[in-house]
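Trying the structure run again after the queue cleared.
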Amino acid sequence: MARANFNPMRVLLFALALLLALAAFGQSSTGAPYHIGFRDVILFNDSLHYAAFGYNGPAPLFVQVWFPLSTDAGTAPLTHAQLRERTLQGPLRRVYDELLLRMDSAFIDYDLRYPLGGDDPIDYAPFTELKVKDSLLTLPTSSHRSTGVQALDFPVIVYHHGSQGTSDENVRMAEHFAANGFVFLSCNFHWPLEGAMYGTPLVWEPDESSILTMLRFANQLANINKTFYIGHSWGAQEGWCTLYEPDLVDAFVSLETTMEWKTDTAEVRDKWPHMLEAITTKSYPMPILLVADTEGEPPFPLFNGVRGELHYLDPKKPFAHECYTSAYLLRLRGQARFNVPDAEALREQEVVYDALLDELLHFLRAQAGMSSVAPVYQGGDPFHRK
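Done. Tokens:
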């Protein structure tokens, strides 16, 4: 697969711009977790051409950055909607506006329309789905836009969303890591196309070049610290198809590719040929944490022969594929304002999601050489593990 045409000056300028906005290394004076800063930047993948809505050039990556702050930013926390606000002009403004429209539609389709495990749409009367979406996006996050001039010295995580997912589908994950000493990067790995379904790829093959563009930026920010990759669903599949190359990341977290419970290699070869080729022919030079609900103990059958240092987590209680994202659980925050018929089930899923965040933090802190204590759970370990 083609490598990205790396422009070191372009990425360096972005890195320097971000460095000027980040807070100094060191915990807050109270010894509590870090405050959470937020910035956005744009990178361009020179190996992937994009032309739509008046734009014609390298595919733009609209990057969101969460990072630790040692002191209170002195600004109000951003709402979910404000995390998406950018100052753009010309064709890039049009592209981004079109992207937001598709992100909103995906949020409604996947996170709002149906109850957990149900096929009948939720009745939000007297509200429309659009009103519910707007209501949820006005909720505050724990992130603060920061303009302080300090230095950056933290390990960095690149997050890759799932198919038809969004860059802000896991705000709570981003904030959890930022509050505990990591920089968390996320971006769009989809682009809006005229007359095409959201998620239609620009090229029908793994998008290695966009991942490499993000990782190069991450390495600029990480300086001498380590760089990690977390992918969910298609984002995890893309990780398996890319990260076998040496010196790309120091650890990889694969969140339910949907292949973990498969045993029919003919079916997998038909649906996920690039992924199957990668896990059966490549070696992985970094520790990998595989997470999936297979209703049984790991290891997951098709991954059993993967050449690499593998670690496994399998939730003991049923855990839905959508619940790896905080966007899906956001409906719970609106329970006092509109109908949430599956609130009890969502709260049970949220317990597992929160436990998963603690497990991911423990795993990556250990890989970063940071002190870490394994999570302790009242009521017993919620995961099968190996």
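The chain has one domain: 8-385. Worth checking whether this holds up in the mutant runs.
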